[in-house]
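Case study B.
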Amino acid sequence: MTALEPSTTPGSSAPGGLVKSVVELDRVVIRLAGDSGDGMQLTGNRFTSETASFGNDLSTLPNFPAEIRAPTGTLPGVSSFQLHFADHDIMTPGDAPDVLVAMNPAALKANLADLPGGGLVIVDSDEFTPRNLAKVGYATNPLEDGSLEAWQVVSVGLTSMTLEALKDSGLGKKEAERSKNMFTLGLLSWMYHRPTEGTVRFLERQFRRKPEIAAANIAAFRAGYNYGDTTEAFAVSYEVKPAPMAPGRYRNISGNQALALGLVAAGQRSGLPVFLGAYPITPASDILHELSRHKAFGVRTFQAEDEIAGIGAALGASFGGALGVTTTSGPGVSLKSEALGLAVMTELPLVVVDVQRGGPSTGLPTKTEQSDLLQAMFGRNGEAPLPVIAPRSPGDCFDAALEAARIALKYRTPVMLLSDGYLANGAEPWPVPVADELPDLHVEFATEPNGAAADGTPEFLPYLRDPETLARPWAVPGTSGMQHRIGGLEKADKSGNISYDPANHDLMTRLRQAKVDGIAADIPATDVDDPTGSARVAVIGWGSTYGPIGAACRQIRNSGREVAQIHLRHVNPMPADLGEVLGRYDRVVCPEMNMGQLALLLRAKYLVDVQSHTQVRGLPFRAAELAAVVQDVIDSVDPTTQTPTATTPNSGGTQ
Amino acid sequence: MTTTPHAHDLGMPGTPIDARIQQAIADSVDSQGEKQTALKAKDMKTDQEVRWCPGCGDYVILNAVQSFLPSLGIAREDMVIVSGIGCSSRFPYYMNTYGMHSIHGRAPAIATGLAASRPDLSVWVVTGDGDALSIGGNHLIHALRRNVNMTILLFNNRIYGLTKGQYSPTSEVGKVTKSTPMGSLDHPFNPVSLAIGADATFVGRAMDSDRKGLTEVLRQAAEHQGTALVEIYQNCNIFNDGAFDLLKDPATGTQWTIPLVHGEPLVFGPDGASCVVRGDFGGLRIAETNQVDASEIVVHDATREDPSYAFALSRLSSQDLRYTPMGVFRSVRKPAYDRMMLDQLEEARTQGAGDLDALLAGNDTWTVSA
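Model:
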């Protein structure tokens, strides 16, 4: 994770004869921080779009408070956006920023500790007033008291220069001031040679009904750019070349966006109408927003009175032949667990999206965590198994949504799709798929009787299963001669009538389990990334930790050690060969943003002595920290005394 | 897409539905033959043994519904009955239609998803006082305000039957039950008042044993576009026997029942001795017919847009059932949710059906060449 040696090249000559140099970097991590009302998320997203269209690889980490507008200028009100971009393939938003833009004293105070010494700090000096300093407990002005000596500080009057640039715009002071984020974006765009046309187009589109606001923002944006070009405060600008990527068409996409598009695509590829029943909840609401815009695809969205009605309506729609979907976060899953049981019992297709956040209870609504895995697995009364799928990156949310729909439709089962806050709001470049090349999700409805009554008359048996998938037939209301009743009471095998027979309940419980377990035969074998094939330590993860674990593994390999990375998309059932794969390694490390939930499952299922490494800070792992943990494990496996054959694979867990 | 209006609106048969579902229905007709709409009560029965307690009011309601539904001219395949949990919620098992016996209180939510995504179907909800008003109260009021096209039959026996006799949200204050040995402290809901308060577009009430009256309310409810709520007083002969005897007993029933007939003056009681007149503050009150001028007697109008009148009507009865209006309180026209949802889909498609490739690409793409 080291930057290339800067190679200074002669730069452009700015007006006034100022000669500026250009430094080439291989990667940069920028963090923009300001007040919740300062528009940092928008600024970050625009900078990301510029960076994406320039062709860098990138990864983002938005981090904002749950309060919409915490008191201005206070620490709880600080909102930030971190962007990592590079001339090569990267996997995380970066452990620590190289550059911090602080729009006020609160933003500086809340973020400075993350910035390594020598890092660049750009501050809006206009905001460092005695009142704002006092609000966050600065006794003296850090811009003047020498406390920032360890960093390179550039103090810029971002607010006053924005006002100056807009003095003829006709806007009042307060309104003009709001464009300071665009001034800042302009400055950064100059510093990092970002293309600016996209932002101008975006502002024109965004404010098409308020042309004077569009004009002011564009003017501020250009003023910021020109300021960078002409000022002596910034003598250097930076170039990060485009990253080599596989040929093709790309776009920038966030996890929630990708997930929503995956659901639309699932509807198109199955030929079924999508019905979303949802109740607003952070950080899942954007999926509801996105799907609501796609009615032209026959997508129906229903904002329900509560979480329970959201899943209930989705299940009702599934009964009617739709691809029923409900989206939520952990607290919502708690409320949905009763209806999930009904979905398990009625064996109807249903996709349940849980965009996990910090818990328990209301927890940390805007922060990320992976702590709903066991809830997804077991959070229902009775034996109520269901498949669990987890995306690994923002773009992968698209494929994971399609896979969740595929399994739900083919096996007639609710499927839990576990995204999280980091994936939901994070973004990355995404190769745009071709619709016709997406998986075919077509399933057949039952349209004629599949059995016969004692007297020989044909009859429909709603629980007569497909021998291969164990899925039951899906006959939708309106279908002639196929009337049947389903519900939450235990069903008799085949006929689906109410049954309290002990042997039948035992059979049905085992059939429901076997149906879910059997999906293991329909998913890929474990994907092991072990370049040399001789690693003795494997790191296993699931969900959004893919990036940090992958980056940690690269660091380890760069240090001359060997390590294998295994990342699960299918958490239930797991790939059929997983137990055997884990058994090949002397040590298995499992980093998770919870208290060790996957580790618990792996230990229980495979009797492998998994070493759990956990963190619940509401933020993704830092790659360097993970690398250190794994390196310690690798170094503890002494190659002179131990060989894979000398140690039985399960030695730890079975003793 | 155009729609075919249906004479009476039980679902909207003929409304456009998605192609795959349409195809499945067409395939089934090819192999099973046309759906039959000339049905008799026996065609509505299933082979499942009815398992309510002998003497339960639910039997009477089941028979009335089985006799009534064929008159609508709708195929069994196009009807769906969704229920929650409780004695009444076993109803779907005994009806030869599509059905779902779901979970406690959630039937209106499940039926909402079904009706909203399949406006062609005739969707019915069967629920009870505990199911609809206690655990499912939220779903009920929201279904009513949304006006999704479905008919909700609320069997009110004023007791929890399936859990063996605890007081319910419609039990009278002071009710002595297993969970209230010293009498219940809860004030009961009046389901009709609640529904009108939630802006329900159709609200009616009927008695289980009154086949004629029940059938008439059911017919009007079925013909209604949007959510119709029918409260059916139902005797639980095990845990709350005789709860409605005041109204059922020929000796007292006439005196305490106010029959609601649209366009007719609200005169009731033996020899029409009692009537309903306007009271203070927009309310209604009971008067002696021979003490008031005929012009003062309220003429029932179920179609009044303002719900205040129907609400005032619902407040005439006391919790001991004296002065209970029976019939249709309110029946007003408002666009149904499922219809409007379909309209939005059609409007969105005026520019053509969605293009998935265009959607996936979005507004900003860049190309990396080989």
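Residues 462 and 484 of chain A are 7 Å apart (CA to CA). The remaining cases will be described in the next quarterly update.
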